[in-house]
Every structure is written in structure tokens, then in C-alpha cells.
Specification:
The protein has ten helices and 19 strands. The protein is an alpha+beta fold. Bound molecules: zinc ion (ZN) (2 copies). One zinc ion binds next to loops.
Amino acid sequence: MSAGGDSIGSDTRPARLAALRDALARADLDAVLVTSRPNVRYLTGFSGSNALLVVTAKDCVLLTDFRYATQVEAELGSSTSVRIESTNLWTGLWAQLATLSGVERIGFESMHLLHRDFARLLEQGARWSWRPTTDLVESRRAVKDAGELAHIECAVAMAEIALRQTVPMLRAGLTETSVAGMLERHLRDAGSEEYPFPSIVASGPRSALPHARASNRVLESGDFVLIDFGAVTAGYCSDITRTFVLGRASDEQREVYDIVREANVRASGSLRVGMTGMAADAVARDYIAARGFGEAFGHSLGHGIGLEVHEAPRLARIVESPLAAGTVVTIEPGIYRAGWGGVRIEDDVFLSDAGPRVLTGFPRELHELS
Ligand code: ZN
Ligand code: ZN
């Protein structure tokens, strides 16, 4: 299924292009060169790895190479035309731009263009005037339509199926990498196209590393086992964390776990349209601090998910922009104590004018694995 394709609801790509064209007009640009793969996919449905996209007030032209000739025809809607380049996409770009009348000022995505390619704009593309842009497409991607939300819900369901299948297999003596392997096998069986990031399985003291990779550490009785992972479908990601205890939890483990769970539930339940990312973050942070663990929650509360696993909006201490209706964000408070261990509980939450809806159904209660 292509992003914005007609698998769910109507084709949303013309509306996305119209919104981008409005933004171009406001920015006094005649065109924009889109080089970010997720942005190309969002606007056209094309999921290949090699593309340049030019959007003007009238035209939308995608350049790709021979490997994608069949795929691109299947994925693109009627609002985008295709040029298959046999030599180099950039050579094709100059030829294409020369056919577009009235195009002088062209934006490029300053967050996504390699310096090498920027040099091409200044050299071979010197007859046009190039202007840096940021977030022209990303700011629109923050608000999901019904089809996108359905894809994310599907990715959440796949992740939860995989986790439910993996949890009964967790036991002392397994390595973190073997647990990650079982989880990823189950993700594939559930239909996940790929992994949005290398699955994190962090046990014992390693659970205190917020971005640990799975290692060859052997799981031991009494360990926290923190699993942070996701699934991908139609390009859309889920991102979920659960933390388990192998065997009986100590009083200290239970205390820390319960604080993180309460912070998670409070933060999810408090999300409102118009709230700043800072205010959302503070709900969890202030609670954890009041319980005496403020220093142990060192990362931000959450981030948007969609075609990328980290996208707008951010829920963090420095974010003053308000949350829009239609965003899907993670809520992932944690407490990390070096040498002892850590707990994170991460859910995916859809925010609308009706309030927050937690998409993740996997239980949050402390699960002691026998
Ligand atoms: Zn995560
Ligand atoms: Zn996350």
C-alpha cells in the first residue's frame, strides 16, 4: 500500500501537494526540490531509495532510475509525473527544470541535502536561484489523516502481537541479542516490513542505558528487561517500550516501576490540543521529580511518529509550540540509575480535539516473568 494511496479512503496526495503549493506561495518560491525520502513518499507514495522531486505551482515531477520503473508506476497517483533517468538524476533535473517556464526561485531542503549536492545546485544549477527551506513538508506530516492513523494503528498492533509472542519465551540464560532476534522474527511474522530502529533489549544494569543496543549480556533472575522496538507498515512506524522483571521484583524495582507507570498514565491522559510540548513534558517530569527521581529522567517525554520514527512534534522541555489536533506522539517517561537499572514505559498516543487516545493496548502493570 502506498502512503496516501487509495487502500484506505480517498487519495490524499492532491491535498498534500495543494498545501505545499500554498506554503511555496507564502515563501515566495516558484518551486521546491524535495530530496528527503519520507517527504517524497508522503507527497507522491513513491517508496524507492533514489528520487528527486520537483513541485511547482502547476507541476509535480519525480525523477528516479531504471530499477524503480515498474514500482513507481504502481505507487504514484495521477498528480505526479515520472521521468526515468538512465544516467544521473541530477542531469535529468537540469533538463527538467529547463522545461518549466516561470521557475526561477527554487527552495531546497536544507536539513536533507548533502553538501556535495548543494555544490551541484551552485554549479550546474547556477541559472536558478536556490533558497534554503526547513520543515515545508515535515510541518504538514505532523498532522495525520485517517489513512495514516490507520497505518500507525496497524503498526502498533503488529508490535503488540510480536511482544505477546516473545514475552513467554523470556528466561534467564538467554542473551539480549537472542531475545531481539525472537522479537524481530515475530515482528516479521506479524507482517512488519522492516524495523524502524534496531530493537533495544537491555537487561539488568544495562536497562539504565536509555539507548542501549541489544548485547551479548546473558539475562539473569532479578533483572529488569527493557524492550523498546516497533513495527513498520506502509512506511508508518510504531514505537513501544515495556520493562519486565525476570523473577520476583524487589521493593525498590517495584517502587521505581510504579512511579514511571504513573508518570506515563498521567502524561498520556493530560495531553490536549493547544498544550505546548514543554507543558506535556512537565506533567511526567514534575511527577517523577516530586517522587525524588527528577535527576534520573534525563531525556524528553516523547516525539511524533509517522513515516519516520522520530518526527514532529517533540514533547520536550524547550518546545514552546502547541500540539495540533491529529498528531501521534510517543509518551515515554523513564527512570535510569547507573549500575542498578532503568525502567521506561512508552505508548503511542493519538491526539484529537476529543482528547488523547492511547493506541497501545499492551498492559502497563508490572509483569514478573516466571
Ligand atoms: Zn521507543
Ligand atoms: Zn520513542
